[in-house]
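Q: Got a minute? One more chain.
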Amino acid sequence: MSNKYYITTPIYYVNDKPHIGHAYTSVATDFIARFMSLKGYDVRFQTGTDEHGLKIQKAAEAKKIEPIELCNQNSKIFRDLTVSLNLSNNDFIRTTEERHIDGASYLWKRLYERNQIYLGEYTGWYSISDETFYNEKDLVKQNDGSFKTVTGGPVEWITEKSYFFKLSEWSNKLLDLYSSNPNFISPASKRNEVIKFVESGLNDLSVSRTSFKWGIKTPTNESHIMYVWLDALTCYTNGINYLNENENAMKEYWNNVVHIVGKDILRHHAVYWPAFLLAAELDLPQKIFAHGWWTNEGNKISKSLGNVIDPIEIINNYGLDQFRYFLLREVPFGNDGDFSKNALINRINSDLVNDLGNLCQRSLSMIEKRLDSTIPQITNKGNEELLLDKSCEELLMKGSNLVNEFKIHDYIRLVWEYIGKVNKYFNDNKPWELEKNDNDKFLNVLAVTVDQIKNIAIFIHPIMPDVSIKILQIMGISETKLLFENMKTINLHGNKLSRVNHLFNRVQS
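A: Always. Here it is, folded:
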């Protein structure tokens, strides 16, 4: 079994600045990437930007600049976001890069050579904001007789020469795929939606445009540019150089690839993308997971309401790892969620300050003050201590299973139950009293507690990497030892603690 693991965010459209939805997708994907690294996988994590299409061309024209200038400016904002969110991605792909253009062109040629693309004329509804063609049955009719997308975006009626992909021929193959591989699309509710959509009948898909020029020219006719989604979806394969004539060493990653997407673009990833790959006789991704949308204090987020949530502002006000923790803990992955500042503050003060922060502060500062910062040795493991070890082992096993099922929220809940058990052990044994009458037990309780905190620091690394590393560094543990398999072998005895400071600050609501 290969130890390669490849996970992707969608590539983000550069016509606007990042919002909480971009941050959520990225942080959740980063969690999974970091968790798989802890398990010993060779992880490749890709994000990037989608830079072609009519929407970009119009936005550039409005600013009186060339489209590539707009793309360069806005792509940098999204690249900077990867730093602001402390993502562990090892690739950032842009659809204006040569490696991407080459791969997209290669897929087009394979489809064309296999008689999967033909020239015709498109007449129908098109959404510029979604860069998507719509059947009328999938639109919402307004009181004035006009139509809008389910997300509220306008559509326009267009007629132009277009190449079409024979999507209608792939309905049964797609349904066979969903049936034979029930885990291909998750969660189950989203899988059922896709199946219903395909069962309702697929029309051939327009895959080229001639009414604007900002895109990749089709290799078979330079007067056409590729439909932006056919172009964009190939970013996943192009990041590992899969779309070419040559065998390559990175194909093992493609054999174990997961796409994390928002539910608004699930159809493109779960219907169009596998159909393109099947028609081109190429391998499919292993999994597509669609997460939900965020509201703001119970209200739908929109520019017109002026309630778009800026992740950088939240990070500056409350802290990066605090923000990451809230996003991942507050909502079961796959569901819709509501962002509330009060809920964020409650999570920080309760879960982070009270539970994790106080545990570390009380135990580590006791070692700092009473033992000259030197970690004592574990000399005895009675029933209490063995139960803690068993809880750690159970968390490792159950947690791994939960993350394999993308139940991030449940994994974090288990970690906090474990933190609660370590807190209870420390409080029940009252080392501040043991110091007066049982020095051996006093030293043992502190040694056991700090050993369990070391485990906690590793468990929380995918959630809050900065805090995790800070705890480990206080204990003198190198970041290179961040693997689950090292948890039992790391010996803290004799390590000197560096200065112990509060991990989190309490927030006044």
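A: The mean pLDDT is 93.
Q: Perfect, thanks.
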